[in-house]
Structure formats: structure tokens, C-alpha cells
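Why GTP-binding protein TrmE N-terminal domain-containing protein? Reviewers of the renewal asked for a concrete example.
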Amino acid sequence: MALLPAFRSLLLNHICRAAAAAASSSSSSRDERLGSSAVNPDQVVAACSSTIAAIVTSLGGPPGAVGIVRLSGPSAVSIVARLYRPTTKKKRNKGKAPDWRPKSHVVEYGVLLDRHENVIDEVCFGIVS
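Here is what the prediction returned.
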């Protein structure tokens, strides 16, 4: 199954929101009526201008089972740490991130989480530093 355009958009939006949260954990300009997960659009633009999320998977090719998103920049690792959980044999504690330390040139398998700790999809993640 191909990575659907709506899912791609959702994933990039999710990554940019995490980038904004990583760039500024508290903001006085945040509209409290929108909830704690809402971010100021200016923060998203600022965070995404230095940390970039780009769809690598070809849009014109045949459907595939793997979609690739590249995340690069100074906040890339902290963003992934907020969204990614490695899959282990131990049961995952909801709300508590395991002590995860990325290793360069190693591909890891895990899950991508939304802001409520719900699994969005299974992912393979690799870092090159």
C-alpha cells in the first residue's frame, strides 16, 4: 500500500508540531483555548525552517509498502525522541519514554506515536551523524 497523500501531510504536520514544541516548550502567545498540544503557527514556521522534514518516497511511482521521510537539522534527534519508541520485548509503559539513545548508522525498528501516545504506524528509523 502506498503512503497516501493525506497520511504524508498528517505525518509532516505532526513532525512540524513536534519541532515547534521542541523549539519552544512554553509560549506566552499560545491560545489556551486550543489545548496544550496547540502551537503558534509562527513557532511551526521557525522550527521547520531550521529542522526540515521532507518526503523522500517518489510520488509518481507504483504503490509501495514503505514510505520514507527524511528529517534533518539541529532538532531532528529530539523530535524523533518525542515521536518514536523502539519496540522491545518488555511491555511499553504508556506516558514514559524508554531510555533511548540513537546510534549512528544503525537502523532501529519501533513505532511512531501521536501526542496521546497512540501508535500511528510501525517505523524503521536510522540516524547518520
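Residues 5-126 form one domain. This is the kind of structural detail the renewal will allow us to pursue systematically.
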